Amino acid sequence: MEDSLTRFCTSNLTGQVCPIGMNRLLNSWNGHRIPGAPRKITADLLPDAMVAADMYDSDMGSSLTRMSSFGSDPFLSEIDKMRAEQGPVA
Q1: Which residues contact 15 (CB under 8 A, 6 or more apart)?
Q2: DSSP state, 46?
Q3: Kindly report the CA angle at 74 between 73 and 79, in degrees rounded to 5?
Q4: What pTM does this model have?
Q5: Of 10, 13, 42, 63, which is most buried, counting CB atoms within 10 Å of its CB?
Q6: pLDDT of 21 above 80
Q7: How far apart are CA 26 and CA 45, in angstroms?
Q8: Which of 17, 76, 70 has the alpha carbon at shortest distance from 84?
């Protein structure tokens, strides 16, 4: 994970795969009834990452590292990104 391109690609892929797992979790939860549990979990009941991090900090009395070099875009511009996707010019 020392290579910034590897970090970016891993982060990008993870960001695209995580919603699939969350949707499957919500669908499976909503697909059966548990006595005493809410019938449906809506997206508004799931906080976004920053809100969840703030909740964790306040509940646990701990702090999270908010900024990281993991997942930062290694390309300086969209043109650089397009060149990398197209490969070397013959």
Answers
A1: 71
A2: S
A3: 90
A4: 0.36
A5: 10
A6: yes
A7: 11
A8: 76
How does 11-26 read in b/e, with b if 16+ C-beta sit within 10 Å?
eeeeeeeeeeeeeeeb
Token code pair at residue 29? 């939860």
Question: Could you report the per-residue pLDDT of 48-83, keeping only the tens digit for each?
Answer: 877 888 888 888 887 777 666 566 677 778 888 787
Q: Which residue has the tokens 């070397």?
A: 88
User: By the 8 A CB rule, do 7 and 71 touch?
Assistant: yes
Structure tokens that stand for 65 in this block: 């590292």
Q: Which amino acid is at 53?
A: A
- Token readout for 64 is 């999270």
